[in-house]
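User: Can you fold this complex?
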Amino acid sequence: MSIDADRIYCLLSQVPEGRVTTYKFLAHAVGSKGYRAVGQILRNNPYAPHVPCHRVVSSDGSIGGFMGNRSGVHIQKKKKLLRGEGVKIKGNTLSDFSSIVVSDFR
DNA sequence: GCGCTTATCGCAC
DNA sequence: GTGCGATAAGCGC
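Assistant: Here's the predicted assembly.
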């Protein structure tokens, strides 16, 4: 089955500020194991600012990478942005990730 | 305990 | 039609 990109955007859209989600759960939420596919959809991001791709992190709580290449220093800005929303970031990983990760969309 | 490899899905070329 | 890419999980050493 295919991952409904619209579903990804919908779930991500309902994630409040100061909270993040993981590729694994997003993929699982749509009923697929295409963890990478989720990132791929976010990579194109047709919904742009409506879909806070920087709010999506890896299952380990690490930022992983955004904008198609983790080399993007923009990640640093994202981390700071998330921190401004109430998300504490440690290096390349979320400190309170386990406390802010939304693993239950329903 | 840490590292590398395999599996999986979507999008771009 | 093929290849690459924002990951995840498992197996090996």
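Chain A is about 40% helix and 10% strand. The mean pLDDT of chain A is 89.
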